[in-house]
Design a protein that fits this description.
This protein is α/β, with parallel strands linked by helices and 231 residues long. It has eight helices and seven strands, in the order αααβαβαββαβαββα. The protein has helices at 3-25, 34-47, 52-59, 78-85, 98-110, 147-154, 183-191, 220-230, and strands at residues 66-70, 90-95, 116-120, 132-138, 158-168, 196-200, 208-213. It binds S-adenosylmethionine. The site of S-adenosylmethionine (SAM) has 22 residues, from helix 2. The site of S-adenosylmethionine has 22 residues, from helix 2.
């Protein structure tokens, strides 16, 4: 092979290698270092912006529930949710960043919360070890590149009447709008999995808060349909 051709093949190979690397490693639209998340999320929790108590009350979490806090970050929701479902409920704090998971485990230990387990997920799958009652996403789904795939992979972890909770922002409700996630898109992806909006709560001015469920068993959707038919 001539020298020029060899150089071309080498450059092409390098290009493919880099392209493949970026393609597989970047199934995320954004990701900050753990330290920054911890500072931001703990600050918002302290300031009351996360409205944690209201969120937990709306979800009616109770002792014995099995809950996954997907993209748990600094554990701002994980710790109070674990307390709400204690003593026999388990809170799975799931994230793709092991430093954040270590931070949550440490925080739980300091607060004497023993019903938290941390789970290291991958970009497109939370890798939960058991079936759950609630999959909770607060400001997470918009960061995931393959959002529909992530939901497809999450649904099988839900018990038949389990709930998927999405709190996120519509692009028009945020000045830096490129990454945010339209609720109507979430509705469409959920409907493809037979999950429908069972409850919508106006707890936040700038974020939607939707509970999705299948019309099955103890589902709110089924109870509502039966109640209407009986009237
Ligand atoms: C903006 S923070 C929100 C943290 C937490 N949910 C809260 O509201 O306090 C986003 C979190 O999602 C996590 N994350 C991003 N992509 C993820 C993925 N594909 N699977 C699981 N977690 C992810 C990040 O590591 C980060 O902890």
């Amino acid at each position: 092979m001539k020298k020029q051709a060899k150089v071309l093949v080498f450059v092409f190979g390098l290009f493919c290698l880099l392209g493949f690397g970026i393609g597989t490693a970047s199934a995320q639209l954004a990701q900050l270092p753990a330290k920054e998340y911890i500072e931001r999320m703990d600050r918002d929790a302290r300031a009351g912006d996360l409205k944690i108590d209201q969120v937990i009350a709306k979800l009616g979490l109770k002792p014995g529930d099995i809950v996954a806090d997907i993209g748990s970050g600094s554990g701002a929701f994980s710790i109070p949710m674990a307390k709400a479902i204690a003593p026999n409920g388990i809170l799975y704090a799931e994230d793709i960043d092991k430093d954040l998971l270590a931070y949550v485990a440490d925080k739980a230990q300091k607060e004497g919360v023993t019903n938290i387990r941390t789970v290291l997920g991958v970009y497109d799958d939370p890798k939960l070890p058991v079936r759950i009652d609630v999959a909770f996403f607060h400001r997470v789904l918009h960061m995931i590149e393959h959002r529909q795939l992530f939901l497809n992979n999450t649904a099988p972890y839900l018990k038949p009447d389990g709930r998927i909770v999405i709190i996120d922002k519509n692009p028009e409700d945020s000045p830096n709008s490129w990454m945010w996630l339209r609720q109507s898109d979430v509705d469409t992806w959920m409907a493809a999995l037979s999950f429908y909006p069972a409850e919508k709560y106006g707890v936040f001015d700038d974020k939607y808060f939707v509970v999705y469920q299948r019309p099955y068993g103890n589902s709110v959707l089924l109870k509502r349909r039966t109640a209407t038919a009986e009237r």
